[in-house]
Amino acid sequence: MPDPTAPPDIFDRARRRIRRDRAAPRFADFAFIRDWMIDGITDRLGTVRRDFTQMLDLGCFDGAFAPPPGANITRIDAGAGFAHRAGGIQGEEDAPHFPDASFDLIVSAGVLDTVNDLPGALALARRALRPDGLFLGAFLGGGTLGTLRSVLLEAEANRPAARVHPQVDVRSAGDLLVRAGFALPVADVETLDVRYASLFDLVRDLRGMGATSLLPRVAPLRRETIARAATAFAARADGEGRTSERFDAIFVTGWAPDPSQPKPARRGSGTTSLADALKQKG
After folding, report:
1. What pTM was computed for the model?
2. Alpha helices in 129-243 (DSSP H)
């Protein structure tokens, strides 16, 4: 039974599951954003010199993320279609599914930007990690879909509606890791610009990714509004007739606390002043 004191959901949970199920059969044709995120997570994981035995793929899509050698993998996805194809279980990221200290590695690529309770999802991931376990995540945020947001606002100038998801920036992502109780938190951002021949090509990709709007209670776009948005999108084209759209991937890294981990230096314990350090650089 829903908690009457809980804040309303940002995203429509039922619509999210349906969109993921619709995207599942042909997702491989539209997986370039998630593949980019997986590459970034894999690069970061490659710098970690330790073995992992139990891994969780949180928001597994089609199960493309390969576990490190020797690790058993559990996969979970909010969509039944993806969960079935990946041999995983269906479940949302902000609901508890696993006992505490179940995994020594959790990865999550491409889903946390549409989780209703992102702080809660991160806290659950932190609890599901064993001491000194590693969390590596990537999700869209920052300035993602800035062109789409701009042309929709232009097309609905008289009565604009929020149609692009609210987004987390890299600084807020780092703060969320700290709030969730992760040690040694790191957040950084990478940007990918994709050039499109038309607005409809961009929308096709977003549908194929299962990444169209999940905002509740938003009126459908009228035909004339879509036409104005398409014209505004085309007006931003370069000399080759293509318009750039931006995707920002926020990468986050955090560890479950453990006494063996390095501790930050105590404030005021430094032996070199900032002035001396600047003199050395000069």
Report:
1. 0.89
2. 146-155, 170-180, 199-209, 223-235
Q: What mean pLDDT is predicted for residues 144-162?
A: 88
Is there a contact between 59 and 211 (Cβ–Cβ < 8 Å)? no
- Cα–Cα distance for residue pair 192/197, rounded to 1 Å: 17
SS3 149: helix
Mean of the pLDDT values across residues 153-161?
81
Question: What tokens does 3 get?
Answer: 């908690």
Amino acid at 116: N
| Higher per-residue confidence, 277 vs 35 | 35
How far is it, in rounded angstroms, from Cα 143 to Cα 149? 10
Phi, psi (degrees; rounded to nearest 5) at 163: -125, -15
Question: By C-alpha distance, which of 145, 154, 149, 143 is closest to 232?
Answer: 154
Distance CA 42, CA 44 (A): 5
Where on the phi/psi map is residue 151: left (φ > 0), alpha (ψ -120 to 50), or beta? alpha
Which residues touch 29 (CB under 8 Å, ≥6 apart)?
208
Residue pair 53/125 in contact by the 8 Å Cβ criterion = no
C-alpha to C-alpha distance for 198 and 202, rounded to whole angstroms: 7
Residue percentage of the chain with pLDDT more than 70: 90
Strand partners, 136: 107, 253
